[in-house]
């Protein structure tokens, strides 16, 4: 077996800017790589986690014009942590505003986890603007996926100690709906209550993401960014990702003719492999690769397949 591909060397953006997308929100946009290369839009996960430098490194910087942005309320976008005017449909509209701003007719769209959700919704709405799709850790935004991760009897079967730690932050009488219970605390007027809820929320997710589980994170201060992530993610999940009435899978036929690659860890404990399979059944133009990985893009086989996918579409028009 040939060696697994690893990330391209670190690079810095050659341009950064902010775009005012509403009376409230200003979003951060950066470009790196080759200004004349194949444009690729990179959608970060969460929702709410923000972009980060590693996301630039899945693409050959000589061939790609690599575009990252921080979605509303997170990363360098302002106001940090805002949930006002912050829905999936707002974000889809922002993507189109970015494409117009940058003078791009068509682009490759790349996203993992929540980024896959947003990539798929965008492509279903703006098929003509998408030359190819690369999606990883498929999250379709349906209730059963949210219940899998936030209700007892599902992921708790595999991470019982981490589930118990996550659930124990909430009194027993409120554990029937942990998302609502955490939302109440993440939006508490008491700062200490919100910080403790964010710490528990974020630790639970990070400790279940990789094939080889991360050690339990030690207690540390919770940054404004981490608090914003927990709040925004909880906001989206309590609202069924704002796509309950327009399920991705029901509109996947609109992806016909769009070439794509789906990468999903066989041992992904956050997003279920069967969702990747369901998507592939509805989208025959995509290649599906199950990997010996967990959820994280940084798991070696996930990284390998994502880099190969990026090479496949490096000359997409």
Unreliably modeled segments: none
Q: Quickly give the structural class.
A: alpha/beta
What is the gyration radius calculated from CA atoms? 19 Å
CATH C-level class of the largest domain is Alpha Beta
- How many separate structural domains? 2
CATH homologous superfamily placement of the largest domain:
Alpha/Beta hydrolase fold, catalytic domain
Q: Helix fraction? A: 25-40%
Could you report the average pLDDT, rounded to the nearest whole number?
Answer: 95
* Topology-level CATH name of the largest domain: Rossmann fold
Give the strand line-up of the largest sheet.
1-2-4-3-5-6-7-8
Q: What characteristic shape results from the CA principal axes?
A: globular
Q: Please state roughly what percent of the residues sit in beta strands, choosing from under 5%, 5-15%, 15-25%, 25-35%, 35-45% or over 45%.
A: 15-25%
Give the helices and strands as they follow along the chain.
Answer: EEEEHEHEHHHHHEHEH
Which helices and strands occur, and which strands form pairs?
Layout: E1 15-20, E2 26-33, E3 38-43, E4 64-69, H1 88-101, E5 107-112, H2 114-125, E6 130-136, H3 143-150, H4 160-167, H5 178-186, H6 191-206, H7 224-238, E7 260-265, H8 273-282, E8 286-291, H9 300-312
């Amino acid at each position: 077996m040939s060696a697994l591909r690893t990330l391209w060397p670190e690079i810095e953006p050659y341009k950064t800017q902010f775009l005012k997308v509403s009376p409230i929100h200003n979003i951060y946009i950066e470009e790196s790589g080759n200004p004349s290369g194949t444009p690729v839009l990179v959608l970060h996960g969460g929702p709410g986690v923000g972009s980060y430098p590693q996301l630039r490194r899945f693409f050959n910087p000589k061939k790609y014009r690599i575009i990252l942005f921080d979605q509303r309320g997170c990363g360098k976008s302002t106001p940090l942590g805002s949930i006002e005017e912050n829905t999936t449909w707002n974000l889809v509209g922002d993507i189109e505003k970015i494409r117009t701003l940058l003078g791009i007719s068509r682009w490759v769209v790349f996203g993992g986890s929540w980024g896959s959700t947003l990539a798929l919704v965008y492509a279903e709405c703006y098929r003509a603007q998408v030359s190819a799709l690369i999606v990883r850790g498929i999250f379709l935004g349906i209730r059963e996926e949210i219940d899998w991760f936030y209700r007892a009897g599902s992921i708790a079967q595999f991470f019982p100690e981490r589930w118990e730690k996550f659930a124990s932050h909430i009194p027993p009488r409120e554990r029937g709906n942990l998302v609502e219970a955490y939302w109440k605390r993440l939006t508490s007027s008491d700062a200490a209550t919100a910080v403790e809820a964010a710490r528990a929320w974020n630790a639970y997710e990070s400790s279940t993401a990789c094939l080889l589980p991360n050690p339990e994170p030690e207690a540390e201060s919770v940054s404004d960014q981490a608090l914003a992530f927990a709040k925004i993610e909880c906001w989206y999940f309590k609202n069924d990702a704002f796509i309950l009435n327009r399920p991705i899978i029901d509109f996947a036929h609109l992806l016909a003719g769009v070439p794509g690659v789906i990468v999903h860890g066989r041992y992904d404990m956050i997003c279920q492999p069967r969702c990747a399979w369901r998507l592939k059944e509805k989208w025959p133009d995509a290649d599906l690769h199950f990997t010996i990985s967990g959820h994280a893009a940084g798991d070696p086989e996930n990284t390998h397949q994502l880099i190969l996918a990026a090479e496949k579409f490096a000359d997409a028009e």
